[in-house]
Each structure stands twice: as structure tokens, then as C-alpha cells.
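Can't paste images in this forum, so I'm doing it all in text. The chain is below; anyone willing to post the predicted C-alpha cells underneath?
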Amino acid sequence: MATEANHPTYETLLYDVEDNILTITLNRPDKLNAFNNLMRHELVDALDHADADDAVRVIIFTGAGRGFCAGADLSGGGSTFDRDVNADGGIVNSVHRDGGGLVSLRIYECLKPTIAAFNGAAVGVGITSMLPVDIRIASDKAKFGFVFARRGIVPEACSSYFLPRVVGISRAAEWCFTGEVFDAAEALDGGLVRSVVAPDDLIPTARELATKIAKNTSAVSVTLTRHMLWRMLGADHPMEAHKIDSRGVQFMGASTDAREGVESFLEKRDPEYSLAPSSDLPDYFPWWEDPEFS
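Text version of the structure:
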């Protein structure tokens, strides 16, 4: 189990674990936390550390300063999105992999439940990379924008997959076609966020929700449930869910966590679960095969 002394340190992020809750803070406040290649590398690394650390039960993403993430760092000028000029990362069949997509895929694969707390503007990759996060909360100062058509590019970070699943195809199309920046109230109405709160209440609200997960649930139950919910979005028949449900109920039903869950309920006390995602996931996990980039 990781200790405070061996938590990673980063140039573009703050990584803080307290009460089993990891807060990852995008930390380029002078640039409104604009996304660059280093931030992409560090976000992936931070999630690798979090998955390996059983002291981390829930992950909260937020931003330093007055913005969450202003999108891609545009300091490169008109060639910012020219991947032939700005090559970084793997190349497959002469195609450069989208950096925001690598972050989205890593969040999607995460073993821990995730919460985004939008303290300010989340535009472009600042919002698309957070679509695989399980729960999103916004300050009433937050703004959002899928501005790609206004920059002469297309949506990235796997958002053509995630956004329609989160808000529906019609709302996703409107936001992407117009490229307009919209406020937190519209984000709430469209289902992009679950609630809008005053700025001072944002992190306390996120931590209260995270604490409900961290203190009351089996970590392995939550890991399995997270992937059951997300993976079944792509299933072509409920039989696929029935197969995984059956395996999960059989495995967890015979576990010490299931015994503790029932006994603590009957004894009217807080549960003390012992299974850990780093060591106690069932043999059938993962039950899917990830496709390769081509």
C-alpha cells in the first residue's frame, strides 16, 4: 500500500491523497490549466499509480485557479493541431494517436470510481477528456464548450463515443455543430453534470460523495460494477450483461466482503471490507479484449 512518502510528484498536476480520496488537480493556473503533452503523460502516470494504490478508493479531478482546463495549449499558433509538426507519442500506420484520447481511454480503464469537479471553464479537451469520468459536478462559475468546429478540427478524446452516451445524440450534435460555449445551467439541463453548486461548495460536495463510496462500499464490488456499467453500453444483447452478472454474483457472493456486508448490516455497524482491487479481482476480470489502434 502506498504511503504519503512515495506519492508521485508532477510538473503539471498536484497529487494528494487524504481519507482514501485522491485529488488530481490540473496545475497550470497561469495558462488556465491548458492541456499539453506533459500533462497528458502525467495524467496517465497518475492513474497508473492510483490503480496500484489500495489506499486510493475514489479519484477527484479538479483545476487550480479560476479555470478547470482551457483546452489544448495554443501557444504553438496555427500549427498547434498539425500532428506532422507536433509529433509526440506512438505512430501506427502513419497515424499519430490523439493525446486526449489516450487520457480518455486510461480513465475508461481505471479501476477506481472517478469524479470531476469543474471549478471553471472546461473547453475542448478540458471537457472531452472528462467524459469517461463517472460523475461530474460543476461550480456555477463553470463554462463548457465543444469548440472543435470553430477551430477547424473535429472532436477528439473519444468524445464521439462518450458524449452521445452521456447526453444523447441530439444534444451532443447541437453542442458540437455550433461550437458554442455554454454555462453550468445548460450543462445540468443537458445531463452533462449531475449538480451545480456554489464555488465554495464544489470540493466539499465532491468529497462528500467520494466519502460515501470510500467508507461504505467494497472496493472490489465498485471496481467490478464500474466496468460492468461502462462496458455494457456497447453490448448488443442483455445476455452479455447476464453472463457477467452471473459470474460477479457467484464470485462476490462467496467472498469475505459479501459476508461482511450482510453481517455489518444485521449488526447495525460500519462495514470493514478487506478485498483489494490490486490483488483480489476475479480470474474472469477483464472479460473483454481491448481492440488495438490501427
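The chain has a mean pLDDT of 93. The chain is about 35% helix and 15% strand.
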